């Protein structure tokens, strides 16, 4: 489905151009219909989830952009993945609550956000046009979503599609995304030691990588937001490696997870009603979810294959996975 990914690149460029022309720099996203998260007093009383303090070595960050009036910033750094051997850019943001005294001893959930198209050398979720960080700050302040740490790595170096996988003879991008990027987060931020504090979000090629990550490693990641994804590996780099390709096929992984009956994962699909992928994604939901794979679909009327479309239901998706995850625990 490479044509879908090329279309994603065009749509994203168009979206960025359109959004940049808006006076506010971002479209208005209506989250008024999203309810507050249910109170979970047991979070503070039930075992007090184990916080993992920053392990180091700390990264040397460079400010990338300021995100609103609360003083938070998207920061950027280069990170060498010791397990993959790949070195690449990562952008990161912590919510306002992270620096508040009442949460000084708490961990925070991590959302690894992956872009569509190549996602290299820039991860567009770090930019101002989509204002993902400002929206998470607003929605978490309103109690509609958890205050996620957002980690935004590069996706496809040299602008070649790696399907978020360790394709033989290629950069180990599966290890980069599921081992090295979490190691980066643990090195620099207060996190949780259980999968209840770890989720993915991705669009198009990044949606495929996000879906595959939670199905392949459910012991590490509990949830994913998957926007307009491919649902089968299709990189031309798989040629000559059919067994490895099958081992990275979400359909195969879903069958394996169902057969061993868990652990449970939660996947929120977002899909524009005008996308060519609509039949494929709905078929995947019908045939490969259920049992330990809990899913919901947010279909956007007249939506196309672009991040601009997916932002329209991002509050709903983040609310849905927030209900499954561990939030920060205040000290008072």
Q: Which structural class is indicated by helix and strand composition?
A: alpha/beta
Radius of gyration: 18 Å
State the oligomer. Answer: single chain
Low-confidence blocks of residues: 1-25
Number of helices: 10
Share in helix = 25-40%
Strand order of the largest sheet: 2-3-4-6-5-8-9-10-11
- How many β-strands, per DSSP? 11
Molecular shape = globular
Mean pLDDT: 90
Q: Which percent band covers the strand fraction?
A: 15-25%
Q: Determine the N-to-C terminus distance.
A: 51 Å
| Largest pleated sheet | 9 strands, mixed
Compressed to H and E, one letter per element, the order equals: HHEEEEEHEHEEHEHHEHEHH
Q: Explain this structure to me?
A:
- The structure is a single chain.
- The chain is an alpha/beta fold and 332 residues long.
- Helices cover 31% and strands 18% of the residues.
- It has 10 helices and 11 strands.
- The strands form 2 sheets. Strands 2-3-4-6-5-8-9-10-11 form a 9-stranded mixed beta sheet, with helices on both faces. A two-stranded antiparallel sheet has the order 1-7.
- β3 and β4 form a beta hairpin.
- α5 runs parallel beside α7.
- The protein is globular, with a radius of gyration of 18 Å.
Features:
single chain, 332 residues, alpha/beta, nine-stranded mixed sheet, two-stranded antiparallel ribbon, 10 helices, 31% helix, 18% strand, disordered N terminus
Brief overview:
This protein is an alpha/beta fold and 332 residues long. Helices cover 31% and strands 18% of the residues.
């Amino acid at each position: 489905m490479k044509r879908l990914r090329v279309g994603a690149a065009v749509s994203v460029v168009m979206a960025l151009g359109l959004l940049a022309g808006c006076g506010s720099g971002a479209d208005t996203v209506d989250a008024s219909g999203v309810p507050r998260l249910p109170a979970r007093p047991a979070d503070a009383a039930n075992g007090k989830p184990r916080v993992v303090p920053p392990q180091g070595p700390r990264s040397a960050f460079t400010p990338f952009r300021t995100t609103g009036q609360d003083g938070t910033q998207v920061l950027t750094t280069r990170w060498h993945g010791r397990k993959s051997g790949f070195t690449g850019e990562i952008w990161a943001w912590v919510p306002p609550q992270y620096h508040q005294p009442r949460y000084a001893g708490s961990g925070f959930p991590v959302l690894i956000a992956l872009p569509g198209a190549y996602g290299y050398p820039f991860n567009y979720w770090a930019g101002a046009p989509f204002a993902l960080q400002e929206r998470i700050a607003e929605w978490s302040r309103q109690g509609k979503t958890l205050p996620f740490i957002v980690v935004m790595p590069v996706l496809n170096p040299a602008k070649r599609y790696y399907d978020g996988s360790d394709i033989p003879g290629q950069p180990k991008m599966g290890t980069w995304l599921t081992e090295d990027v979490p190691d980066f987060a643990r090195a620099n931020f207060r996190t949780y030691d259980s999968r209840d504090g770890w989720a993915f979000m991705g669009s198009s090629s990044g949606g495929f990588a996000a879906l595959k990550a939670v199905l392949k490693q459910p012991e590490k990641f509990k949830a994913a937001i998957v926007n307009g994804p491919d649902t089968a590996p299709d990189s031309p780099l798989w040629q000559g490696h059919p067994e490895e390709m099958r081992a990275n096929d979400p359909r195969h992984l879903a069958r394996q997870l169902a057969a061993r009956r868990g652990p449970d994962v939660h996947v929120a699909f977002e899909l524009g009603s005008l996308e060519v992928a609509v039949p494929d994604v709905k078929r995947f939901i019908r045939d490969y979810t259920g049992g330990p794979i809990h899913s919901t679909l947010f279909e956007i009327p007249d939506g196309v294959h672009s991040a601009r479309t997916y932002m329209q239901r991002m509050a709903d998706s983040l609310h849905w996975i927030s209900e499954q995850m561990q939030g920060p625990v205040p000290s008072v």
